[in-house]
Design brief:
Blueprint (H helix, E strand, L loop, with lengths): L7 E2 L1 H8 L7 E6 L2 E6 L10 E2 L5 E5 L28 H13 L6 E10 L2 E17 L4 E9 L2 E3 L6 E2 L10 H10 L13 E5 L15 E5 H11 L1
Parallel strand pairs: 3-6
Antiparallel strand pairs: 1-7, 2-3, 4-5, 5-8, 6-7, 7-8, 9-10, 11-12
Length: 233
């Protein structure tokens, strides 16, 4: 079964979901239907990723050059789109996807975004469209920033796209997820189950509930999340 937005996974479960060992943050066309990125907004995160105030847009920082030795600091060098050989880096592949989209040569690249909440705990943030990029100077070097917008697609079950109304959802900020995880002790608030968990809005966003406070977000297991959804519908 494909994971859906706000499901909680271990690193191994995330890798199993993608049938790959995820060792880098940017993974262009990891699957023929989509790309995958890993992000983090923790204080010690290696890249500057952020969520816009609209609640559906992510700005994702591109990746650094490879470390070439103990004294080599990738943070001292511009991020690059091509290797000296001319081969596109992951940055370059994402840049080219945006260019092709803007030139109307293809649809926007679909990207599954996984977010690290705490060590060993990840969450599927959602499926996004890669719509733009920019190069910015962070006062030390030039870095890529990719712009992704949340779609209404929730999974790729049975080779088909499963969709919901975009108005029914909003990205739950990282700090809120972290607070909820700690408050609920990593367990379903109904039955105490510690696996197959999901970040759930007590009052759905579509009915006026907010994603911006832990007071409206809780941990539910798959069983009780489905039961609640059935009652709301």
């Amino acid at each position: 079964m494909q994971k859906i937005q706000d499901d909680i996974l271990s690193y191994r479960e995330m890798c199993d979901a993608e049938n790959a060992t995820l060792q880098r943050g940017m993974n262009y066309r990891l699957n023929p239907k989509y790309s995958v990125i890993l992000m983090s907004q923790r204080n010690n995160a290696p890249y500057q990723d952020r969520i816009y105030d609209d609640g559906i847009t992510i700005e994702y920082e591109g990746h650094d050059v490879n470390r070439k030795g103990y004294l080599h600091n990738p943070k001292d060098y511009d991020q690059i789109a091509k290797l000296p050989s001319g081969t596109l880096t992951q940055n370059g592949k994402f840049v080219q996807a945006v260019i092709n989209f803007k030139d109307h040569k293809r649809k926007a690249e679909l990207v599954k975004v996984y977010e690290k909440i705490i060590d060993g705990v990840w969450s599927l943030k959602g499926i996004f469209e890669l719509v733009d990029f920019k190069v910015v100077n962070d006062e030390k070097r030039n870095v890529y920033r990719f712009i992704l917008k949340l779609t209404n697609i929730t999974s790729f079950d049975n080779e088909k796209l499963t969709q919901i109304e975009i108005s029914h959802t909003r990205i739950i900020p990282s700090e809120v997820k972290k607070e909820v995880w700690k408050r609920d002790s990593g367990k379903c608030v109904v039955c105490g189950e510690s696996s197959n968990l999901h970040f759930d809005h007590e009052l759905p966003f579509s009915k006026g509930g907010t994603s911006l406070t832990a007071k409206n977000v809780q941990l539910l297991c798959m069983k009780h999340n489905l039961q609640k959804s059935a009652k709301i519908e």
